Hints:
CATH superfamily of the largest domain: Winged helix-like DNA-binding domain superfamily/Winged helix DNA-binding domain
Strand content: 15-25%
Mean pLDDT: 83
CATH topology of the largest domain: Arc Repressor Mutant, subunit A
Strand order of the largest sheet: 4-5-6-7
CATH architecture of the largest domain: Orthogonal Bundle
Distance between the termini: 60 Å
Low-confidence stretches: 96-100
Structural class: alpha/beta
Largest sheet: 4 strands, antiparallel
CATH class of the largest domain: Mainly Alpha
Amino acid sequence: MVTLAETAQEGIELAERVGPDLVVLDLMLPDLPGEDVAREIRGRSDLPILILTAKASESDRLNGLALGADDYLVKPFSPRELVARVRAILRRTNGVDAPLVSELRLGGGNLVINSLTREVIVRGSVVDLTRNEYRLLEVLARYPGRVYSRLELINRVQGYDYEGYERTIDAHVKNLRKKIEVDARHPEFVETVFGSGYRMARPARAS
């Protein structure tokens, strides 16, 4: 069932009351910027969000994804493309991945990932990650030191049928670092490999 909201406030209230499987959000709304709606929804839940907008620059795309959106579709677009994007998001978010082990520990136990409960604990405190942030973290944590290209990470996090922007992964990494690193500019866990992609830092070897 599709439920329509004509204003930002109505959309926020519907998302809270109805609990939809996915939110398709136009950034051009009569009462509030769509970006504010995305922040409000993401602050309350992990609902998948597909942003619709005429803003097509790289910075606009990254800003939209930094809000926690799962995908970003630029106008004009065909109804078939919109439906395909929605179906792809729902396939990703409704899928169940069988964990390889129940718990991963990194950084001397400073970072703990429970694959059964999808709980992430950083330095003794539970950290609230979005679905894509969690998937990104788990992929990197499985093989510390292995370098993943942006395309590999997009495929593993967003799904192989994802047709969006490859730099999406940079926004997810930026958001993830803010939540798990002491200093996001000098990350302890998620490292940038310039010209190649990203990796989880290897455990320090005992001397």
